[in-house]
Amino acid sequence: MRSPFRPDAAPDASILDDHKPLIRSLQRRGFIRGGLSLGALVMLTGCEPDRPESVESALLAISRLNDDVQAWLFDPKKLAPTYPASMILRPPKFNAYYDVMDVKPVDGAAWRLELSGLIADKRPWTLPQLQALPQTSMVIKHICVEGWSYIGGWTGVPLRAFLERVGADLRAKYVAFKTADDYPSSIDMATALHPQTLLATQYGGETLADPFGFPVRLRMATKLGYKNPKWVTAIEVTNKYPGGYWESRGFPWFAGL
Ligand SMILES: Nc1nc2c(c(=O)[nH]1)N[C@H]1C(S)=C(S)[C@@H](COP(=O)(O)O)O[C@H]1N2
Ligand SMILES: [Mo]
């Protein structure tokens, strides 16, 4: 199977025409900003951009998700569904904008979490320091816009606790992330403070494996897969819109459940 992000052959642009009404409705409701490019469509539809039913189901997945979700977009206290630990998929499903073979493992001993922006104490953190903070676990569903999902079990420090600890300005608008693989990402402060938003260091009770973001990844129950950066190396608190990897390629920034 080829990577969904590196199609060997460019798909026929006419698939966009085939799905015009659905794409238009997604645009109207603000789920897709601007025009949907062929590249974005290929990313959405995973391995089979030429299969009309896979395009359709990926678009419908976005539509349904966002419909479900409107109700609690502005309720930062509402919790996303959780599942029994017996449902945790082992190993989890991998995705990135490149193939799993191209993952470059991060050296946990040399790793530091750099802090910048509206944060009082900007001293970098080591992994043992982060792991010494109180940990929380959650079993949640990971939903990728390509139209697949899995139940995963994550353990780590609630981002809220971490931001409070370093004296972040919790009235700021955004929390932005940098990663070892150059996949910038950012979220709204309400989501950063949500109880189901973790700086995760474990999956299924074990240290995160390299492909899934070792040593630290952001893991949120309330956002689509692409909003959850792996291999986090830096956090910035800011009022200036930071954007993100897929967001700068036309995907919605909020992308929340
Ligand atoms: N650093 C980094 N984080 C990333 C990505 C990436 O390419 N690089 N891909 C995103 C996408 S599209 C998805 S669906 C999830 C996949 O996470 P998983 O491999 O743990 O299932 O990671 C997200 N976080
Ligand atoms: Mo994804």
Task: Give a structural overview.
The chain is α+β, with helices and mostly antiparallel strands. The chain folds into two domains: 13-73; 85-249, Sulfite Oxidase, Chain A, domain 2, CATH 3.90.420.10. Helix content is 22%, strand content 21%. The chain is built from seven helices and nine strands. The chain has helices at 14-18, 20-28, 38-44, 52-70, 127-131, 159-165, 189-192, and strands at 114-117, 136-144, 148-158, 174-179, 185-188, 197-203, 206-207, 217-220, 232-238. Strands 2, 3, 6, 7 and 8 form a five-stranded antiparallel β-sheet that branches. A four-stranded mixed β-sheet has the order 1-9-4-5. Strand 2 (136-144) and strand 3 (148-158) form a beta hairpin. The protein is globular and about 50 Å long. 36% of the residues are buried. Residues 1-10 and 67-74 have low confidence and may be disordered. Molybdenum atom (MO) is lined by residues 95, 144-146, 225-226.
Radius of gyration, in angstroms, nearest whole number: 18 Å
Judging from the principal axes of the Cα atoms, what is the shape? globular
What is the total tally of β strands?
Answer: 9
Question: Which small molecules are bound?
Answer: ligand MTE, molybdenum atom
Q: Top keywords for this entry?
A:
binds ligand MTE, 257 residues, disordered N terminus, binds molybdenum atom, Sulfite Oxidase, Chain A, domain 2, alpha+beta
Summarize this entry quickly.
With 257 residues, the protein is of the alpha+beta class. It folds into two domains: 13-73; 85-249, Oxidoreductase, molybdopterin-binding domain (Sulfite Oxidase, Chain A, domain 2, Alpha-Beta Complex), CATH 3.90.420.10.
